[in-house]
User: Fold these one by one.
Assistant:
Number 1:
Amino acid sequence: NFLLYDFFTTDGYVNEDVFAYSNRAGNERGMVLYHNKFAATRGWVRMSVGYKDKANGQIVQRSLRDGLSITNDGNRYLIFRDLATGLEYLRNSGELCERGMYVELDAYKYHVFVDFREVVDNEWQHYAHLAEYLNGRGVPSIDEALRELFLQPVHRAFTALVNADTFRGIRVGEVTPEAVET
């Protein structure tokens, strides 16, 4: 299940300085990207390079969907960890299948994506909201980021209530307890 991919830049050409490949065995999946040049690049991994199919002798290409065994469903999300940074990422499975994976790489940098797991979004679209909020950024823990995102209104209210300015105002009589409640 090893696949080598073309890396298409945002300008639409293949960047031959980026090595991108995936492999999987059973439920274990991994993907490696390495930029072998003193420059920054960004682009998409979607289709493998052509290779000769042993069964029929034809040149074939396979998609990232096939390589990582991703379900093409806009209500599913793929969570994975980058061993290079320790950060977790969240991507929509349907978008990964249709558009591929967007990646940015600086000079001689790499990503090693492992620990892939697919989750189904719930009726409140928690993962969709988190994916929109993160906008492609990695976080130490997707589960923790999900909790923090939905506790933000409580944190904001608490921060507005419990801060130095509020306490100073109460101390000098400018802010009354009744005003804080409203």
Number 2:
Amino acid sequence: ENNHYTVGLLWKNDSEDLPNNRSIAISRFLNLEEKFKRQPELKVKYSNEIEEYIRKGYAKKLTFQEANITSTKTNYIPHHAVVNINKPNKVRIVFDAAAKYKQSCLNEQLFKGPDLLNNLVGIIMRFRQGIIGVIGDIEQMFHQVKVMEKDRDSIRFVWRDNPNKPIKDYIMTVHLFGKVDSPCCCNWALRQTATNYRGGYDQEIAETITRYFYMNDYLNSFPSKEKAIEITS
């Protein structure tokens, strides 16, 4: 879909009913707003990140009519900020899909899925083989894989950029950090990309995708600058 894979949530039971937990999402959001009052610079960074989600299509604001249409799979995910001390100008929004409401949470209804990560020891050893090292990463890897439309109602969240405005409902359209099946779904999409290359494109690029990624981090080494440029450009 628009050059991105679309992968559904890994439900344990398709008929499982989720309690509508909008109240806990609002409660947690109000706590977040209190934190914003104490840290106004965090509020600016957080708002910018949400706006970026909307601009890139990772999140979508629901109309009043859309928000009022609910089902047994309607679920809201509280969210909060995580700041890396090594990246003080950036904030990561983490969705708490483990937040419980009436003894239930989204993560408990999902399979984690098989571990598709490469062995880290193997990656590091292969990285030492060549004289030219290359390191990179897939930017916002989870957000590069879309969620099937039928499952998006289970990844709603609430937001407003001004405490004087009403709280509005949003949905995420992509897999998100904090959901238990996201690593598996997104690693599968990456490996499927390699499968496509094997199906008639470049076998060497397929091998690179399959063997030299650890989640979104890429580590590889080459015998020459020319070879490094050929594979990575």
